[in-house]
Amino acid sequence: MTISMYQASVPRLVNALGNLSNILDKAQAHADAKKLDPAVLPGLRLFPDMLPLKSQVQIASDTAKGVVARLAGVEIPAYEDTETTLAELKARIAKTIAFVQTFTPAQIDGTEDKEIVTRRGEKETRYTGMQFLLGHAIPNIYFHVTTAYNILRHNGVEIGKRDYLGNP
Question: What CATH topology corresponds to 5-165?
Answer without folding.
Answer: Four Helix Bundle (Hemerythrin (Met), subunit A) (1.20.120)
